[in-house]
Amino acid sequence: MAVVDDQPLIRAGFSMVLAGQDDIEVVGEAENGQQALDLLDEVDADVVIMDVRMPVMDGIRATERLMRRDDPPGVLVLTTFDDDEDAFAALRAGAGGFLLKNAPADEVVHAIRVLAAGESVVAPRITRLLLDRVSDRLAPANGQSERLDLLTGRERDVLGLVARGLSNAEIAAELYVAEATVKTHLGNLMAKLHLRDRAQAVVFAYESGLVRPSS
């Protein structure tokens, strides 16, 4: 994994914490987004811890560029929860989740492992709370509503329930179907919409207008 932050003490702190984990190796550090892109041209990293506000290139732009690459790493954005729009922009850019900068070490380690396994770090309920808080200040993304036409009616139902924060088991109970069926619909809709994880699915549901704040 790689650590990207413009503050040397924060980079050193993360590297020190992660160095003690048998299953995590820090392959490099960078102090801005451009350095991160250059670093990841030279080394492979499954996960990148990315600060948002940095000189030269911020973490949002760096994440967007990383997501255009073949087999991009999972990106874990560092923020404060007061920066709602930064957190939302990170998820929209393709980040697999976000953490507070003062998160406990064990929470950071757990998040890295989850992201390395291909899952999103932010639970859909938390993502929904975040989007409810910023949605009145954000315009829907162009063309997103038209992409809903790619989905079947049942896939729309599943997406809407994911956006409400329901788990697969809860969605199955709501729709009176097997949990395996929910997983199939979720996999199909994510493939059609080119979504990486459930957090991105929640973002898409808001941007497309499928769900509204607190609906």
From TrEMBL:
The modification 4-aspartylphosphate is found at residue 51. SMART domains: HTH_LUXR, REC. Residues 1-116 form the Response regulatory domain. It comes from the Bacteria. Keywords: DNA-binding, Phosphoprotein, Transcription, Transcription regulation. Residues 144-209 form the HTH luxR-type domain. It holds the Pfam family GerE. This is Response regulator transcription factor. It comes from Streptomyces prasinosporus.
